[in-house]
Amino acid sequence: MALVDYSTEGGVALLTLNDPPVNGYTHEMMKELDAAILAARFDDAVQAVVVTGQGEKFFCAGANINMLKAANPSFKYQFCLHANETLLRLEHTPKIVIAALNGHTVGGGLEIALACDLRVARKGAGKVGLPEVALGVLPGTGGTQRLARLVGKPKAIKLMCEGKTFDFDVALGYGIVDEVWVTESHGAFMGRVMEYAKGFTTPGRAALAVGRIKRAVQSGMEMALEQGLAFERELQAELFASEDAREGISAYVEKRAPSFGGK
After folding, report:
1. pTM confidence score
2. What are 113-151's pLDDT values in tens digits?
3. Residue 179 annotated among the catalytic residues of the structure
4. Would residue 243 show up in a list of annotated catalytic residues for this protein?
5. What range defines the domain where residue 24 resides?
6. Which member of 111, 195, 243, 254 is catalytic?
7. Is residue 263 in a domain?
8. Are residues 191 and 246 in the same domain?
9. Which helix (H) or strand (E) covers residue 46, if one does?
10. Same domain, 20 and 65
11. Are residues 77 and 175 in the same domain?
12. Which end of the chain has less neighbouring CB within 10 Å, N or C?
């Protein structure tokens, strides 16, 4: 059985963490997630990515605690390093990535979601938080860094040191979740997520530009302003040379809807 299911639909790759009941990740799952991210990156037909969890109860409960208990310190270090590299690969892929929070999203599960560009959640489906302090450790798959960049240092320190979990509506108020949707069922939620993701694909949206906007923000924000602006200019020059830019500008002048090709 695959630990990460991979499928595509209408220009969207769906990556599903699949180790019920809590979809906790092992090194084996992280390797499969890494491979799935690369598959989506190299597939020109894929223009957006959705990451979710199997079932209706958990997006992901984080690292498999039994695996960590049995591992030696060297393995734990390499495990964290590879997880960091995998989530950086997700951030650096020039295609928008949406986390579909279908259930509890805690610990390393939230850290995976934080590495995505957008996070949408099903109302009432679960809790969210970084409770690692209760285990005597810190959020070690990017949580300390990404949460602080998202909500600010004081709020991030408070949330992680208190270790509380909270519902998606509270997470929306903190800015951790971008949207909370009311849906009748898990299936309806995932259907809405996929339609939302398709809204970032061609022909209606310039997916090439969407991907470069993501790269400009994700990488540029880690640079000094002058270097970030230089990076932005390089990405803009790439887009100006694209067929999509010519189509977008022509459609604007001709007062018609553009039809983008992703090139």
Report:
1. 0.95
2. 999 999 999 999 999 999 999 999 999 999 999 999 999
3. no
4. no
5. 4-198
6. 111
7. no
8. no
9. none
10. yes
11. yes
12. N
